[in-house]
C-alpha cells in the first residue's frame, strides 16, 4: 500500500527536485514517489509510453486519482493534488480491463 504524505492533497508536502526533472516528496517520507507538474507528467506518459487517461475519481480531499493506459498494455496510476502536483502511485505492464459478470458496471 502507498501512503501519501499527510497534507499532500492540499499541497503541504515539501518537494525536493531530483536529477530526472521530477520532484520527490521530502526525505522524511517512508516511501518516495516521482512527482512533478501535471502537464509535464501527462506529456511524459503520452510521449514516452503512449499512455492516455481512461478513468479518474475525486477524493474527499480534492485530490484526483487517474489511471493511464497504452494500447500495448502499459499502465500508470497517478494522484493529482488541487495545486496541480501529480505523483505516480504505481505502474507496470499487462493491463486487462475488468468485465463484470453480474451487470454491475
General description of the model:
There is one protein chain. Strands 3-7-6-5-4 form a 5-stranded antiparallel sheet. Strands 1-2 form a two-stranded antiparallel sheet. It is mostly beta strands. The longest helix is centred in the middle third of the chain and has 12 residues, at 38-49. The chain is flat and about 40 Å long. The chain has a domain at 30-92. Strand 4 (52-58) and strand 5 form a beta hairpin. Helices cover 11% and strands 34% of the residues. The protein is built from 1 helix and 7 strands. The model is unreliable at 1-30 (pLDDT under 50).
Quick take:
Helices cover 11% and strands 34% of the residues. The protein is built from one helix and seven strands. Mean pLDDT is 74; it is low at 1-30.
